[in-house]
Amino acid sequence: MTVQEPPERAAPHAWATIAQAVVDDLYSLQGYDNVMLCHFDRAAGVSTPVAWAGRHSEVMRRVAGQITRLFPGANPWEVKSRWDVNPHMARLWSSGDTVIDSVAHLNRGVNAEAVLNLICRVSGIRYAICVPLRVDGVSIGSILGFQRSPEFPVAKVRYAEAFARQVSLSIHNVQLLNLQRQTSAALASSMQLLGQAEDRTRRSISEFLHSQVQSKLLVAWSRLDDVRAQDTASQRVLDDVRRDLELLREHDVRLVSHQLHPEALGVGLIPALQVLISRFHRVLEISLVANDVLAALDNHGGERLPQSLRLIVFRTVEEALGNVLKHAGAAHVTVSVTVQDGDLRVSVADDGRGFDPQAVTPGLGLRCLAARVEASCNHWTVDSRPGGPTTVRAWWPL
């Protein structure tokens, strides 16, 4: 299966974690005078050195010193080259064949001929083996081993090729890991946007219920009052209808409106949680604990806590309490909201029946809770055991 790589130009950074270790290993195990690993940018058609081994030996220091004196500005260790700079490089990148030849032939067009002659004369290094790094049949780089002798035994060539295959696999794994991280980050961003869109929709519906529906119900209630005054025979029925409308307007619509969008968040996180907890007073005993640091941040309208953070904390507690009510069989719940070590921390602990997290498939409520928290911070845990207690924890960096 072919997996799309991250952008080629970012590859050297992805390789940095393994490139130097790769050349150091081949250098020490096979006795080359120098080993170089190159990255191939297919989009630009350019090969770039990523890591060297042996360049800091006494001989190579002497080579570098003479090059610097005779050719100011020349740097043979950092030279980029096009894939088609000479037939040997074109063969390496296009066919994926191992290439063994003289340094002069392999580097023709890469370094100036005078620089090449100086390197070969001072170092004595005249021959090289170039083994491509390939993933899914595509060249992504190469390993080059340089030595004085023209002899490359078959066993040494096979070792270099096997080594290159393992390196290619390692590099590809790094690329896949980076791609996974990018995908995870994009998914988290999408989930956050979906959460924001959901809250905007909730707010719109809440405002619609609170304004237009409430207003229309009030008008209907008033018109019924007019009819009641004219038709005394139907007063009892009309009184019942007016009471039902009043209950619908003052209780049901208002309750749904507040559930869709908690207006108390405009005052602060703690007041909003107090309103939330009051909804459960007939079925659960709930204690709210908040430390002084949070109270200080949450005062004066809660402006020191971002509205988005207050809302996600509110929804997290709301979801957790809903799960307790549906599944836990609990009598008491403690909701703790504190600021510690630069994090806003929330825990919801109940004394219910508990469960084995390893044996239970998460239901819709727990999955919704996970999606909501992971979209905003990705820090949350559920601790439980059969017989209880159960504690849900989440935290957000401030």
Automatic annotation (TrEMBL):
Kinase as UniProt keyword: yes
Enzyme class (EC, first level): transferase
Keywords, ordered alphabetically: Kinase, Transferase, Two-component regulatory system
Residue ranges annotated for the GAF domain, each copy included: 14-181
Coiled coil regions, renumbered to chain: none
Protein name: histidine kinase
E.C. numbers: 2.7.13.3
Reaction catalysed by this enzyme: ATP + protein L-histidine = ADP + protein N-phospho-L-histidine
GO molecular function: kinase activity
Family matches, as SMART domains: GAF
